[in-house]
Write a sequence for this structure.
DNA sequence: TTGTATGCGTTATCAG
DNA sequence: CTGATAACGCATACAA
């Protein structure tokens, strides 16, 4: 676009943004007129309006949203804090958020906490500093409390959490029904005839992992399979945790015949170890993960996983935020719960004799309901 | 954190941000004093400084960066536009960017163009509106020109491109030596004894894909293997393109004995088709991709790929931006070129009799040099 | 239909 | 050491 920038020394109007008063001077009118003309106010004659618009274009006028925001107290900005943007889930959520926000006339700025509470606090500062009108947060895994959100609270900036929340906290939030996700996945394994189902559980202070584990226990109970802490591996849900934990599980006197990992990376790690031991998936051990990462469906065996519906969650979060913004203060808090979707793939099709539920299977309601 | 919010009707100071003048009134001093105390100016007595700081904390004062930015003309914000945040590359770059920017005292706000030029333009507006001090861009794949960046140019906002750029454009940029990446990958396949090497090429208006293809051609030439357009599949680099294109290649009278795809997803698609036809990788067909996506190294066969060093690129981009910011206008443009890294994995270890370079192999210099 | 005056929250300049 | 005042760019109540 710009030419070689060597000889053509065209006076390219290099720097200095053009302001309304610049335009006003040049046209010999007041700043008010400019302001109104640009915002298409009805009290401005079509003639002047046209002149202003033309000059604005010619001088490449760029409105200073910052000044407008300062004046109006509205920035039309929404801030989002996510733990990271790796994998498939958070990118999907932000996608949903951006689409829905854009429709409502907001722009989105994104920050990553990199799973660090201190960075999370810094993101918060940045966003508050940018005068965002609302903040959306999925907590860093190390978050133990919500102290650093007090500022936001007190400042009156609307706050909505999603996916990763602190339970028992009185907050607005959109979450997945992780408990149900854990439940249906485990039930599926039971129905494939598996009885000794191991579980890789994530950090239990995080709602998502605690709920997935609870769903796992729900299903076992329903099918009359006694829960066995020996079969539950608590870890940080990395790939290495999966490898390591699986070694441990395989060294048990009676190894498991199925594994339900609360995350796909861990499931993948487990798979590595299983194969290293020359065992087959799903024939010897059935396997299921959580999150529907790309690698779960790209290579054999395709790994059964749970779709977290990130895109939908993103839209729901914006919806809830807009509700909050347009409500009077003191409204009751809302928690929206989304339905997970089990994606059955080859890794879990053990095809053994199915287990049967213990009692009245239809009546069980493992979902976490709406608060 | 907040209690049940029902009975405890504690006057929680719900809304209204606290300003400097609020603090000034309460302490009976001037706003100036407050401002100076908060910014730790030397001309303020330790006693008053302490009083101010304490009150600020007590009242939960939050500086209005917006107002400060307006006044100072500096927002300490850097805007980043990426085509998307899926996969491993762009998240890695943003990670690098955030770390380096943070070190330099800047905050980063991220926008996605979703590969759409119009959205790219909107992101630009948002960032300009937020008064960012610099803009980093990796182009949407549909970008044909840089017209929408003229505004930024003229406004004097520093602009640095990375990874995806328009060639022959006079811009500051940090890129990977994609040509070399294509070259070393193809050479590796040749050294594995492959002679009919197919290539999945991406949209050729994008520098990255054109360069990868050029590197492929460089290697073929060096080893005296005639290039064959029949073996080059031009596509959009989706998984489906890989599946489809591979079918086409396998139906040739003499099918290829290796495939170099300019992207991992396409490589994965090709792999699917190859296996569907009951052929083996790497024995029948060797395979290599580009980008080092997670799925390339998580399951067998592990797919040979090229590490794009996203994190390094992120740091380099910030470095370059800071250079630009601190330079006088009219400085020569810079293009920084990063080295790719070939990651050899099982998918390409054909182990056939190696090809030998045609002529003086050592003298070849396929790298794109520094402008 | 247009202009004047004022203020949003900060910081820089110049006096005390 | 501290304070009064102006200015950043824009939007609005009020006046003309």
């Amino acid at each position: 676009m710009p030419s070689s920038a060597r000889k053509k020394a065209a006076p390219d109007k290099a720097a200095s943004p053009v302001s309304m008063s610049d335009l006003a001077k040049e046209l010999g009118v007041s700043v008010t007129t400019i302001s109104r003309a640009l915002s298409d106010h009805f009290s401005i004659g079509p003639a002047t309006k046209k002149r202003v618009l033309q000059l604005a274009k010619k001088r490449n006028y760029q409105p200073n949203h910052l000044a407008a925001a300062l004046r109006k107290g509205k920035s039309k900005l929404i801030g989002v804090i996510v733990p990271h943007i790796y994998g498939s889930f958070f990118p999907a959520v932000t996608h949903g958020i951006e689409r829905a926000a854009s429709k409502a006339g907001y722009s989105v700025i994104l920050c990553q906490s990199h799973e660090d509470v201190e960075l999370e606090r810094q993101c918060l500062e940045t966003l508050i500093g940018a005068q965002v009108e609302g903040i959306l947060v999925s907590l860093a895994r190390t978050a133990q409390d919500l102290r650093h959100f007090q500022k936001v609270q007190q400042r009156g900036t609307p706050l909505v959490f999603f996916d990763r929340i602190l339970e028992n906290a009185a907050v607005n939030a959109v979450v997945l029904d992780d408990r149900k996700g854990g439940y249906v996945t485990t039930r599926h394994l039971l129905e494939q005839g598996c009885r000794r189902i191991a579980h890789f559980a994530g950090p239990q202070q995080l709602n998502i992992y605690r709920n997935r584990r609870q769903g796992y226990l729900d299903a076992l109970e329903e099918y009359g399979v006694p829960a066995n802490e020996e079969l539950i591996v608590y870890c940080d849900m990395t790939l290495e945790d999966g490898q390591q934990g699986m070694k441990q599980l395989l060294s048990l006197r009676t190894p498991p015949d199925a594994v339900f990992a609360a995350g796909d990376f861990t499931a993948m790690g487990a798979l590595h170890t299983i194969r290293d031991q020359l065992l087959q998936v799903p024939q010897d051990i059935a396997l299921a993960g959580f999150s529907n990462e790309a690698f779960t469906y790209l290579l054999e065996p395709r790994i059964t996983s749970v779709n977290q519906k990130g895109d939908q969650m993103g839209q729901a979060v914006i919806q809830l935020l807009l509700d909050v913004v347009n409500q009077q203060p003191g409204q009751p808090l809302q928690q929206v719960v989304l339905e997970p979707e089990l994606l059955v793939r080859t890794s879990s099709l053990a095809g053994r004799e199915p287990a049967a539920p213990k009692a009245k299977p239809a009546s069980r309601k493992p979902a976490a309901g709406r608060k």
Summary: Chain A is about 40% helix and 15% strand. The first strand of chain A starts at residue 77 and ends at 82.
